[in-house]
Amino acid sequence: MKKFNRFFETKKEYGAVFLRLVIGWRLIAGVAAYATGTKPISEVSGFFTQLNIPAPSISAWLSVYAQFICGILFIIGLWVRPAALTMIINFSIAIIAAHTGDPVERSFAAWALLATSLFLLFHGAGKLSFDQRFVKLNSRIK
User: pTM higher than 0.85, yes or no?
Assistant: First the structure.
């Protein structure tokens, strides 16, 4: 068991990479049709109108492009903490506006995206990221 634990302890930074890749992919896949114009963003705006979200057209654009851009940032490991904070705000609003009272099966994706964003806010992108490369570069310059 010691060898097993030691092996994975030396590879623990891959956990953050796997989370970033999967959550980034999910964020992009969830909004890509709207961000690229394949589907009209008015569908999202209409949904936001039903939820009584203020300024539904602007909110739709903000949410769609925030998820799309943050998904890319998560995948490449760049500016992960600001992206995570953006997604925490986005999915907190989503849970309050759209999932209050929903069964866990229906709201799980939003909760998982919120939890992963909280993890990335506190943990950061990890050693295998552009964020870490910039930290190393900045420490060499100083």
Answer: yes
